[in-house]
Amino acid sequence: MDVVAGIDVGGTNTDAVLVSVGRIVAWAKVPTTTDIRSGIVDALARVVGTYRIKRVHIGTTAFTNALVERRELAPAAAIRVGKPVSESLPPMSDWPDDLRGVARNPIFFVSGGREFDGRAIGALSRAEIAEVARNLGSGGVNQVAVTSVFGTSYPDDELRVAEWLREENPKLEVSLAHRIGRFGILERENATLLNAMLRPLAARTIEAYRSAVPANLLISQNDGTVSHSANAAELPIFTVASGPTNSLRGAALLGSLSEAIVIDVGGTTTDAGSLRAGYPQPAGLDLNIAGVRTNFRMPDLSSIGVGGGSLIDSSTGAVGPQSVGHHLMEAALAFGGSTLTLTDIALAAGRIDLGDRSRVKHLAPELIARVDAHLRARLARLLENYERTGQQLPIILVGGGAPLIERLLLDLVRNVVQPAHANVANAYGAAMAQVGGEADLTFSSAGISRGEALTKAEQEAHRRAREAGASAGSIVTVELEEAALSYLAGDALRVRARAIGDIEDSSR
Amino acid sequence: MSFEIRRSDISALALGSTVLGCGGGGNSYYGQLVASRVLAADSSVQVIDIDEMDSRAFAITSAAVGAPLICLEKPPSMNALRVGVDSATAKLRGSIGAFFAAEIGGLQCMFPLMLAAQTGLPLLDGDGMGRAFPELQMSTFAIYGTTPGLPTVLSSDRGMLFDNVPAMLKNAPPAASAKSSDVQFERAVRKICADEGGLIYLTAVFDQPSLARTLVRGSIHLALRIGRAVESARAANADPIAALLDAGNGKRFISGKIVDVERHFRGGHDWGEVRLEGIDYDRGRTAKIAFKNEYLILWREGEVVLTVPDLISLAETETGTPVSTEILRPGLRVTVLGLPCSPLLRSPEALAAVGPRAFGYDLPYVAIERTS
User: Fold this and answer.
1) CATH architecture of A434-501
2) B71/chain A closest Cα distance in angstroms
């Protein structure tokens, strides 16, 4: 039988699932290994049996970790196209000193770039680019990040600079900002530079993954889609927020709900997020990666300090935020310890069957009632964050601590779904991912109508989804939004579109 | 009373000025970064009261004109600011005593700070609005008849554009429906702005006695106090909204989540309405806010409870981070705050220019002190 494998390489465990027509047919959890590769090989070996794996989707934190730990980063040149515009705010202006120190990225300002209406700020100069290329050659810098003023709407200058750089020096690898970031030159450039710095590591890591898996390799992206491995090796920055996205996507699909609140109950915290049209609702604020601001979005998550290991105040019934964490199996009353935890309350209330019930039988029903009242209020408050007008969203409950609070959610008259395989939601989310494309364009209203602007952005997003490997008939637009550039005599429009589609298996 | 701004204060000033920006005034993040580059770590900017300035000296204001969103692709330009200041001072008979902000709200207050940092001259503790407004003629200088000031200069990244704006206006055909020279000025400048790529800088010179009469005093100090209060509350895990209200003498109107945002773009401005539903203590309540770049009118349970020119500001409930109209999105959890405007904005002539009716709402202005 043909299956898709989803793999989540986490800090502690490497999870693998095999999926056939949306159903998990096998799964495994093995410890993550230092070399990553052997953990993947081991996890796959445990699940593969007689299945034929047609694709492997991997969610990885390797590149996020490299940035956070400031290791294995290559020096990358920042080329800003649009001189003299933006010279007062040079590249890396908002980077933490330690990262800037490690990076040693050279900076160049060159002519070119556009106004919001497409007019050139200055003319591109071949001679200027040739000099930059020579300079990089003698400095041994092979990675380049090119960022042009209004480049998201008018990418031609970046494309031309990249072409010239490669002609001058074929060793140069060029990351282009219009393919990576959105409107907002510094954040877009930040993401592009981080991408360039990660590329040699990404090429090595993805090659190692490829040698570990028996089929076509795709890598999880921030937006819940996957990208072909060759593409991901060129755009590693798109993987840095894929973890929470895969968890929420996995929960949505396991629970068969596209509009829902997801609650993940762990040992120390309970995390919530919400799904719109099957995808995580994004947070409003910009994502900070390793101390660097980018204009990527993370899913909108909230946390409360409630989990299986949460300490209970026996006089008030208050829960957490202190937790015994991974010491639960020694510290909790139920396991012979002396600390009163939420797990003990749940055991005394008969909601779980775990540990020694005789050790918690002294807990009075009044105490359990006080804890329940406290928790109900906290959970109601957490849910309020995601509720919508006139609609009570169902809840998908996942995580090891799910049974601890299920009863209380039902008390709140909520529709609660506890799907099977919730412990491998992340790997399942990776396995089920589609591919996507995004466009963020600016138009002057003089040359184009609003309808035409929206259509153009949508077409570009579809084109990029096809480029990413989506089968032509399956592509749908999932986001289409506009904003005006206010205060101008003539209106200008900024339009953003995102499209996704099913992976075409014949393509490679 | 004078005080100093150091590099470490810039983030607090930016936060506080964004609260005073009432949802508009532009994203100050890039301005904050440029100011931090210009103000040396071991240096500071002296902030003085207008009364501490020599009455024969002049003060310069530098402001960006154009679309705030364009600043995200064309960040603040020190070159454009310097060209404007050099040109304005070259023709001036007299000395420059200070720089000042035409508008405290949002990005605009960063430009005079950059210039003060670069030149070593002081910054005045005050501005022409005490908040942000969508148009140039909505400043106290225009309301009380002090614009345009002496030499007025337009510049851009490319350098000088016009070094004598009043003369330029004389040669331009008057706008057909111009209500006043200020409106005509506004229109002429916006036309040039669009031709120049959507963002230009205006430098104007004012004499001390005019400013002493029309400046909204203490607004730099207020912005700094609000920003510091929020930053300290965050660091201490205390409630940033309570700290913000305490520092800004404000009132909390509702805490909730945004359920709907409706926008339409007319005449180069971003108009719209945002609806909220209360959560936590405000569960079951609803609110609506109308905006034109800035938040203008607040309704709670269908009743008007606060109007322009008093300040309506939104802040993320958890962090106290101000929420501009550009980033309004369903799902955001925010608190709606009100702060009293300057008494200079409450006179009949001021209300005619910046009250609810000036924005097309047939509503009386009711001072925040009289609402609950």
Assistant:
1) 2-Layer Sandwich (3.30)
2) 8
| ipTM of the complex as predicted | 0.89
**Pairing state of beta strands A476-485 and B216-217?**
unpaired
Contact A384 B280 (CB under 8 A): yes
- Domain topology for A256-422: Nucleotidyltransferase; domain 5 (3.30.420)
Token digits of residue A43:
């996890």
Measured CA to CA in angstroms, residue B214 lies from A180, B58, B159, B208, B236 at distances of 48, 14, 30, 10, 39
d(CA A368, CA A405): 13
The token duo for A262 is: 């997801």
CA A384 to chain centroid: 24
A488 touches chain B (CB under 8 A): yes
Of A454-458, A500-504, B186-190, the range with the lowest mean pLDDT is: B186-190
Where in A36-81 does DSSP place strands (E)?
Answer: 52-60, 76-81
The identity of residue A460, as a single letter, is E
Q: What is the pTM of this model?
A: 0.86
CATH 3.30.420.40 in chain A, residues? 256-422
pLDDT at residue B176, rounded to an integer = 42
pLDDT digits (tens, 9 = 90+) for A25-84: 999 988 888 888 899 999 999 999 999 999 999 998 888 888 888 889 999 999 999 999
Q: Rounded distance, CA A428 to CA A20, Å?
A: 11
CB A111 within 8 A of CB A83: yes
Q: Do B187 and A489 touch (CB under 8 A)?
A: yes
The CA-based diameter of chain B, rounded to the nearest angstrom, is 63
Q: Which residues contact B212 (CB under 8 A, 6 or more apart)?
A: B50, B51, B55
Residue from B235, B229, B236 nearest B315 by CA = B229
Instruction: Report the gap between the CA of A308 and the closest CA in chain B (Å).
Output: 24
In angstroms, the CA B104 to CA A499 distance is: 41
CATH of the domain spanning B3-219 = 3.40.1610.10
Say which CATH architecture domain A74-197 belongs to. Answer: 3-Layer(aba) Sandwich (3.40)
CATH 3.30.1660 spans which residues of chain A? 434-501
**Helix, coil or strand: residue B225:** helix
- Domain B240-370, CATH among 2.40.390.10, 3.40.630.40, 3.40.50.10330, 3.40.50.300: 2.40.390.10
Range of weakest confidence among A289-298, A408-417, A481-490? A481-490
At residue B365 the predicted structure's pLDDT band, cuts being 50, 70 and 90, is: very high
Cβ within 8 Å, pair B198-A284? no
Question: Does the pLDDT at position B368 exceed 90?
Answer: yes
Counting one residue from A and one from B, how many pairs have CB atoms under 8 Å apart?
Answer: 135
The domain spans of chain B are: 3-219, 240-370
Model confidence pLDDT, tens digit, residues A318-368: 998 888 877 888 899 999 999 999 999 999 999 998 889 999 999 999 999
pLDDT tens sequence across A457-488 = 999 999 989 988 899 889 989 888 776 555 45
User: What is the distance between the alpha carbons of residues B315 and B18, in angstroms, rounded to a whole number?
Assistant: 10
Out of A87, A88, A385, the one facing B257 most closely (by C-beta) is A385
**CB spacing of A183 vs B69 below 8 angstroms:** yes
